[in-house]
Design a protein that fits this description.
Layout (H helix, E strand, L loop, with lengths): L1 E6 L11 H15 L3 E4 L19 H10 L5 E4 L2 E2 L5 H14 L4 E6 L4 H7 L6 H18 L8 E2 L4 E2 L15 E5 L6 H8 L2 E5 L3 H18 L7 E6 L2 H4 L3 H8 L9 E4 L6 H19 L1
Parallel strand pairs: 1-2, 1-11, 2-3, 3-5, 4-5, 5-8, 8-9, 9-10, 10-11
Antiparallel strand pairs: 6-7
Helix pairs in contact: 1-10, 2-3, 3-5, 6-7
Amino acid sequence: MRVGVHINQFGNSGGAPALGAELAAAGRAAEAAGVSRLSVMDHYFQMEFNGGAEEPMPEAYTTLAFLAAHTSTVKLGALVTGVTYRHPGLLAKIATTLDVLSGGRASLGLGAAWYDREHEGLGVPFPPLAERFERLEETLRICLRMWDPADNGPFEGRHYRLAETLCVPAPVSTPRPEILIGGMGERKTLRLVARHADACNLFASSPEEVRHKLGVLRGHCETERRDYDTVLKTITYSGEAATEGDLDAFLRDLTGYTKLGIDTVILAPRLGETSAWIERFVAPAVERLAELD
C-alpha cells in the first residue's frame, strides 16, 4: 500500500510570508519519505472543521504549480475540485498546464461540490445537487474530449457548449492525466468512476463500509463493461492516530483495509506545518505499510 499526503491546513507560525517556504519544505519531505502523491484542498474558504473561513485557503492550482517547481517525482492534484469552481474547458487547460510543467505528474480530482457558503460568499452559482452531478458528467466528457488529439470538434451538452475542444500544448502524461473521482455515493458517484475515471477516492470510514462501496463499484464496472481491476482504489485517512503521530495505532486502523485492493492511503492531518510531521510520522509509515503487503 502506497502513501499519499493531503495538505488541508495552510496556517503556520510564520503566517502568510512563510507559507511558500513551508509548502516547499513539505514537498521535499514528501519525496524524501517516499510519498507517491501530494494533494491540496481545493476550496475558496477554509472548512469549518479546520477553523473556518477566516483561516488561510490559497487557490489550489496556483499552489500545485508552486509545488511542481519544488518537487520532481510525486503526483500532484487537488482532492477534489468541485465541478462548480471552474468552467470545464478552463479546468482542462489548467490541469493540462500543471501536467506539462510538472513533467506528466498531474492528477485531476473531481467531485460534485458541496460547500454552499463559499459559493455564496464569492458569488459563484451553486445549482441543486442533481444538476451538479449532470455538470460533473459533462465536465468529465469535456476533459476527455480535450485530451483526445483526434477530436477537437464541438461539444454540445445540456449545461456546457464548446465550439472547439482545443488543448494546446497537449498533456505529456501517457495517455493523459489521471482522472480521480472522490466520493462514496453509490448511485451516481461510483457509476461515474466506472464510466469515466482512472481512480476513486473513498473515506476510510470502516473496512466494512469500504468493502461494500468497492462491491458497488464492481457492479457498476460490470454494467459499464469496465475491468474493475483497472480502477485505482484510494482511501483518505484523517484519524487522530496520524495527526497525533501514533504509528502503531495508525497501523492497527489500516489492517482491515490491506486485503481490499487499496492501492494508496492518503493521509489528511489537520495541521498547518506539515513538513516536520511528514519527516516524523509519514516516513516511517511508508516503510511499515510496505511491510504489510
